[in-house]
Amino acid sequence: MIDGARYLRDVVGADPRLCSIVAFHTSSPWEAVELGLSEALDEFGPAEHELVDAITFCDLTSSPTGQLVDPAQRLMEVLDRYGPGHVVFRAVSAARPELLNRVERVQQRRAVAAKERFS
Hints:
Elements: H1 2-12, H2 16-24, H3 28-35, H4 38-42, H5 49-60, H6 71-82, H7 87-117
């Protein structure tokens, strides 16, 4: 998360908003706490909540092969892949309620936008 954001910022010269989205994607803040990297993550914040919701939605509704999946199933796949001793497992476990809330917020915004578009 931090390495990717720094690469985009320092090597690619990407827009700061994109760097922030990469830094704060999915369970990154929880992973940063686990790894003692919260201060390093702060160099890319604060993140725009709507954009973090959007990237989290994308991450949790697509499988590693790009197929659409249920967000809860995607989280279970991640937990199974990493196992209880891994930092990602601990971070995703702690973040799970908020991650599912992010998906729900995007689904709600999509429903409102669709309703407005067809009314």
